[in-house]
Design a protein that fits this description.
Elements: H1 2-10, E1 12-14, H2 16-31, H3 41-61, E2 67-72, E3 77-78, E4 83-91, E5 97-103, E6 115-120, E7 125-132, E8 138-142, E9 145-150, E10 156-162, E11 166-171, H4 174-185, E12 205-211, H5 223-229, E13 233-238, E14 244-250, E15 258-259, E16 262-263, H6 264-281, E17 285-291, E18 295-302, H7 307-316, H8 327-337, E19 343-347, H9 353-369, E20 371-377, H10 380-387, H11 393-418, E21 422-426, H12 431-445
Parallel strand pairs: 3-11, 14-17, 14-19, 19-20, 20-21
Antiparallel strand pairs: 1-10, 2-4, 4-7, 5-6, 5-9, 8-11, 9-10, 12-13, 15-16, 17-18
Helix pairs in contact: 2-3, 4-6, 6-7, 6-12, 8-9, 10-11
């Protein structure tokens, strides 16, 4: 008896229509004091309401398994991207039902209004689609899915509980990775804002002898093959392969700054993952180093099939530290690990010229042995302040200071160029596009 009470009481809820019916019955009983001619009408209405509630109860509880629900969650979520989730609901009742679904998503999303409504006809099913955008890497725990069912009478609601707790890891943005991989393979990277780079000369990496096509460089004509075939034949060259591309990620406190829900470290991690993938597609070797007050994770450059998975597993665990970057430790690690000239993409951030000058001696030493590309970030809040209309003296002061800091960022680019160091100053949301674009430009110009 106690178990039956738990089953019915715990998952039984009163509907709005029932409260409306109770209100009507109460009103009729009140009116009988002033309108005696109503007679037994209030009693009849009350008995009818009880009968309808009984029928509604039997309709909902007559089937032990009236509905079925399944939540389809990916094995892992992509950080900073819209991830699609599905809730499949099937109606086993012999009548149409109205449903409401509450999905107990992880607390990291801070959403309390995830409520879905739908109507299902008898013996039919429906799939509810929605998206979630995580902004932190780590483990996310999904709770139960609560399904609330009403019959056509709508007087009471029965609740069904489905699914148990499920833990899903959030990895660096692998959805971006797939998008750029497909475009890199098909040479359609310009569709996402990556410019086509004019090739200066051509590589000495021979590919094949092919038929001449209008537009081919006549200097590449293979006269011996032309004489044999009787048609113009040209030598085809490809980009040099097996070049080393290292992503170095600064995870000190300067990378803690947030932008659109993600930290600068997360943007750097997503961009380095995409760059590593594009480098592997282009037959180069990709590697990784993380640095803060000491050298963190190191993945030696390679192009084996498992290399990208190895890099992703390392990046999944990385967190921001709260101390200064130890550039001396980074320089020692690079000299000890990287023996041949490589492209080194260093993701960091400078907010002042003095911060750059502290690191510049070590950057110049690294640039002597490798092609160094420094990637740092525009302060988008400062840019917004400089574009804001000026109305009073305080606005003039704020606008002037913001303009000074923004101009200082541009001076940093010139200072790095003066010492032969390449750089990218980019907004966080355009980081991936700008980094991949520069990598392709470097490949085309054969700078490595």
């Amino acid at each position: 008896m106690k178990n039956l009470f738990k089953i019915y009481y715990k998952d039984l809820f009163l509907g709005k229509r029932l409260f409306v019916g109770i209100g009507i019955c109460v009103s009729l009983f009140l009116f009988t004091f002033f309108l005696p001619w109503l007679g037994d009408l209030p009693y009849i209405a009350f008995c009818a309401l009880i009968a309808l509630v009984t029928v509604d109860f039997l309709l909902l509880y007559n089937h032990k398994r009236g509905v079925f629900l399944r939540r389809d969650v990916p094995e892992r979520l992509s950080n900073g991207d819209e991830n699609e989730l599905n809730i499949y609901v099937e109606n086993f009742y012999s009548f149409g039902i109205n449903i409401g679904v509450i999905d107990e998503i992880p607390f990291q999303f801070q959403k309390r209004n995830l409520w879905f409504k739908a109507t299902l006809n008898a013996k039919t099913h429906k799939t509810i689609n929605y998206t979630l955008r995580p902004t932190k890497r780590g483990e996310y725990v999904f709770g139960m899915v609560r399904l609330y069912v009403q019959s056509p009478l709508g007087l009471i609601t029965r609740r069904f509980n489905f699914e148990t707790d499920k833990t899903v890891p959030v990895y660096p943005s692998f959805l971006q990775l797939r998008k750029y991989e497909l475009m890199a393979i098909s040479n359609r990277l310009s569709e996402v804002g990556i410019k086509k780079i004019r090739r200066i000369g051509h590589s000495m990496e021979f590919d094949q002898v092919k038929n001449y096509v209008k537009g081919d460089d006549y200097r590449t004509i293979n006269w011996k093959a032309t004489a044999r075939r009787g048609d113009l034949m040209v030598n085809s060259f490809t980009d040099e392969k097996s070049q080393h591309v290292y992503s170095i990620i600064d995870k000190s406190r300067v990378m803690k700054m947030p932008f659109d829900g993600l930290t600068l470290l997360d943007y750097a991690i997503n961009a380095s993952l995409v760059l590593s993938n594009v480098a592997l597609v282009k037959d180069d070797k990709a590697g990784l180093i993380t640095i803060a007050e000491k050298t963190g994770s190191i993945v030696s450059a390679d192009r084996r099939p498992a290399q990208l998975g190895k890099i992703m597993n390392v990046l999944y665990k990385e967190k921001t530290r709260y101390l200064e970057t130890n550039m001396e430790a980074l320089y020692i690690s690079i000299r000890g690990l990287i023996k041949q000239r490589s492209l080194i993409v260093f993701y960091t951030n400078f907010e002042s010229m003095s911060a750059l000058n502290r690191q510049l001696p070590f950057l110049k030493r690294i640039a002597k042995f490798h092609l160094l590309l420094i990637v740092f970030f525009e302060n988008t809040e400062l840019k917004t302040l400089t574009e804001k209309p000026v109305n009073n003296v305080e606005d003039i002061y704020i606008n002037t200071i913001a303009g000074k800091f923004a101009y200082e960022k541009k001076l940093m680019v010139k200072e790095l160029a003066k010492h032969g160091i390449l750089s990218i100053l980019t907004p966080p949301n355009k980081l991936t596009i700008n980094v991949v674009n520069r990598y392709l430009a470097i490949k085309a110009q054969q700078k490595i």
